[in-house]
Every structure is written in structure tokens, then in C-alpha cells.
Amino acid sequence: MLERSLIQQRGFRNVTAADGTVTGFQLRLRNPNYRGVAGSLIDGVQVVVDGEIHPAEASSWTLQGRTYTLDELRASTDVRWPLDETATVTVPHPGGLTAGTHRVEVAVHLRRPYIPAVAGPSVFRASATATVVPGPAAGDGLRYGVSLYSYSGDLYTSMSLEDAMADIADLGATGIEILGEGNIPGYPRPSADWIRDWHRLLDTYGLTPTNYGSWVDTAMWRDRDLTAEEGRAQLETDLRLAKDLGFTSVRPKFGVVSPDLEPHPIWQSAVERVLGLAADLDIVICPEIHSPTPIRHPVTQGYLDFIERTGSKHFKLLIDTGIFQTAPVDDGHEGFEGKKRPPFLEPLHVPMADLVEVLPHVHFIQAKFFEIDDRLHDLHVPWGEIVPRLRDAGWSGWLSSEYEGRREPYRGRDQVRRQHALLRELAG
């Protein structure tokens, strides 16, 4: 699906020549007309970025896989701009644009032959804030991914699964994290056709399945809690489905019995019963350290004790970076209408030293965030402390964007782009 805005977020990037020289930038445009048009009817686009005007005659257009100067496009007879395809506009600009957000304005000029010439070409104007994401820093040990949770509200409404995968690949990210029951149609038994399509899309966009989020809803029945054996059965279902989809870790979220997220007592017995299966499938089970539970806490210590007692290499920790939050989130949260701010949106201020202490047992990091402004400043999470500590400690693994801010349409995909620009600037 195309974004409703004429200026598409996907495809906004610098252009690099074969010798490594940055020669300009590109943006993609949706056809603003109500019907497709012949290429010869395109009369150019004026592009303004951060107040600097780039005249129409300087840019080239790529339509249906072929690139044209504006004069060549005006003279063309065999190319069209359909409504369901974007046009890529390449703007010469030595050195390109800086990484981060930019204010982009366009004025697209189209001739419409059924409108009298005296009226002149039709002009379609639009503006947007778009983000240039730099490539990953070489050799920093960090791998970059995105959780589909970031696109909640958009996924399956204004975005298809393929749109989400295309967005992730467009960032230069290579990992995709999902929520089993949140993102898999027909869960827990998706169709064979859906599974085949999933793998096809992974290949198309060069993505690696990273972490599969699951739940063991211990309080799902009104008259009793789940037994350890029922918990085992749920874990086995998700482990096997995760393996079918190519994932290498599973985050089981057990129902909790206290405000600081103490998991239901069946967790140890249920997990221990599937450790052999996890080893056979080569999947790591990763319970989540999530606000309001800090690292130095009996819940976390219980997981560490389990690691030591079992000696299993298939049980490790998942860190949610919301635990490092330094400012409250006041935008509200779905399901908490009219109630006090939920505890997990309060700043927990977990020290970086605590993170470094448990890093040997950390398999995966969910890069939780709520809002990044136009200056690439995160208003709540101190990435300027987190990323250097990970690099200094030599930690290698996935940083998986998990946007949990406001859910206006398309906001998640814009915020994820900003976070990746920020993380890679810090890593570089």
C-alpha cells in the first residue's frame, strides 16, 4: 500500500556513486492525480528541503524501472505513472543530506490535456518531515531490527505485512521481531500458504527472523489458573511455530501475580519441561525484564538463578529499554483511560552499571521508546548512555525497535526511522 501523503517516507535517502561519493538524494512520490498519466504529461517537481530550493529541471525521474531527465520524460511515448506506483525523484546535491529529519516540500506539475491550456498545468503541493537514516556502523557488533509492535494500529489497516517488511528493509535494518498472536493470521495454526508467503517476503527483503513474542495466560480461565503442564503445552506450541517461521528466540510473557511483574509460580516448572525441546530446535527462551521491574530485583534474580541451576544455554534474558526511562510518559496508554499513569510509564532510572553486570546473560534487547523529536532527541530513554555501554562491553546482538508512543496513523513508521537514525549516529 502507498502512504496517503504525496511524499513517501520510504525511499528518502542519499545517493552514492560507485566510487563512494555522495552525489545527491532521492525521494519517492505518490501520483497526486485521480488517474494515471503518461510520462509526457509530467512537467516536473520543485523540491525544497530545509528551505533550499532544487529546481525541477535539475532532477531526474525513475518510472517503471527506467530513469529519465525531465526533457526525456516530456518527450517520452512509452512510459506511464500509474496510481499504484511511486515515482522516484533523484535530486543532485553534492554531499547529500545530513542524517536525521528534514522538512521537505514539493510542488508537482502535471499537464492535463482535457483542461484548457489557458488554465496552465495543475500543481499539487505537499510537505512532510522525512528522515535520512545512515547505514550501520561497520564492526560495532550491534545488529538492527524492528518489532512489528511498532506498527500497531497501522498493520493490517493502512499497512500490509509486506509494507512493514519493506519499511524495515528501507531503514537498512535486517531483523524482524513479531508477536505470535498479534501478527500471525490464524494463530496458532496459520495456513501453509501464509507460512510460504512469510518466507518469500523474508527472502525478498533480506530479513532475518529474530524474536517471537508469546504469552502464557495463566489467568485465562475464570475459575482457576493454568497448571504447569498447560503452561508447558502453550510454550511448546509457540516454540514449534517460531521454528517453522525461522525465529531463534521466544519471549514468553507469563501472567503476573504482583504489581512489579512477578511471574506466576508455574513459570519455572513449565519452562524446565521444554528446555530439551528448545535445545533440539536451537531456540533461546528469553523472559523479559520490563518496567516496573528493575534489573536488581527478585524477579530478575530468579531468572539468573534458573540459568545457573539448569546450566541451559537456551534460557537467557531479554532487556526492554523502558527500564532506563528518565522521564514520565504522559501521552496515555491504551486500556488505561481515566486511570493514573500506569507504573510502567513512570521513570525507573535503572543504572547502566546494572545493565553491564547482566550483559553476559542477555540474548536480546528490545529498543523500547516513546518519542524522538525533530532533532533526534529521545525524550525519555538515554540512548547516549546505552549504546556506548553496549559497545564498550563488547555486547553483540539485536537492538530491535519497539515503538510504544501515540498511535496516530503512520506515526510509528516515522518514529522508527528517527530511532534508527539516532542509534546509528551514536554507534558510528
Textual characterization of the structure:
This protein is an alpha/beta fold and 428 residues long. The chain contains 11 helices and 20 strands. The protein has helices spanning 70-75, 161-170, 180-183, 192-205, 228-245, 267-272, 275-281, 298-310, 352-358, 383-392, 411-427, and strands at residues 7-16, 22-29, 37-38, 42-49, 52-54, 60-63, 66-69, 80-81, 87-92, 100-110, 122-132, 142-147, 175-179, 208-216, 249-254, 284-285, 288-289, 317-320, 362-369, 397-403. The strands form 4 sheets. A 9-stranded parallel β-sheet has the order 16-15-14-13-12-20-19-18-17. Strands 1-2-9-6-7 form a 5-stranded antiparallel β-sheet. Helix 10 crosses helix 11 (411-427). The chain is elongated and about 80 Å long. It starts with 6 loop residues before the first strand and ends with a helix.
